[in-house]
Amino acid sequence: MFIGTLFALAAGLMWGLVFVAPLMLPDYPAVLLSFARYLAFGLIALPLAWFDRRRLRQLTRADWIEALKLSTVGNLLYYLCLAAAIQRAGGPLPTMIIGTLPVVIAISSNLRDARRDGRLPWRQLAPSLALIALGIALVNQVEIAQLRDDHDADLGRYGLGAVLAMGALICWTWYPMRNADWLRAHPDRSPRSWATAQGIATLPLALAGYAGFWAWSAITGAPFDMPLGPDPLRFVGLMFAIGLFASWLGTLCWNEASQRLPTTLAGQLIVFETLSALAYAFTLRGQMPEPATLAGIAMLVAGVLWALRARPVPLAAEGHAG
Length: 322
Prior knowledge:
By secondary structure, the protein is mostly helical. It is built from 16 helices and no strands. The chain has one domain (2-312).
């Protein structure tokens, strides 16, 4: 349990990086950021695949199809929605919506995976979920108040950002549960190899998407300097940084956590991603968090610690006790 929590923490620290990249590259279309990030991920996975070729050969056709599905929804579609949401609504609103992932995944998994993992009693789960939800609300209270006070804000643009963030939320509610299904069904397989397999599966999709966007830009005469945009060094550096740390290494750490923890608890530990994203955003702004933000962070951590005290109860035992 402790080692799984540490792996989830490491994944969250690295995944938080993806929230700041769209803010650092505001002139780049979200679709290009998504394809470029996973093109970098795929290229990084190629040499790793060579070293891991023996384990990758053990994957069946069905395994590769599953890796392709996970890559399409959990990688490309998720980051497309998230990057577009951040560029339209700023960092706080999408962070708030994605920050509900621990609650959404915990509830979804407790309903869906009880037969496999056992059911965490709702009475034990409710306090931690309430603390996490209240913490997220406090963290974003100041940001939302600023948004309401901004009379020049484009509400339609912010509304679209909220819808796109909801799309990202749906993608990443589906991904960790489906990914955990495969990992728990294959306990003899290496989480590192599975992370690399997802990178390899993503590569052709990202390459085709990048080439397609380049061709579309040329045909339509879009005023964007392809292939690397107006700030090539920053663009390439950021894409390879999040491709390595957030995509491959983050996925590896999450796979390790998923094999060690029930999906319900692992889902709550995605709260580390929200905390990391907020910390990076405030560092980028050069601001200290408001007291309400610090109180929210304390509640988030308390909710996670409370959740780790709960233990799944097998359905048979639960029914007998009832």
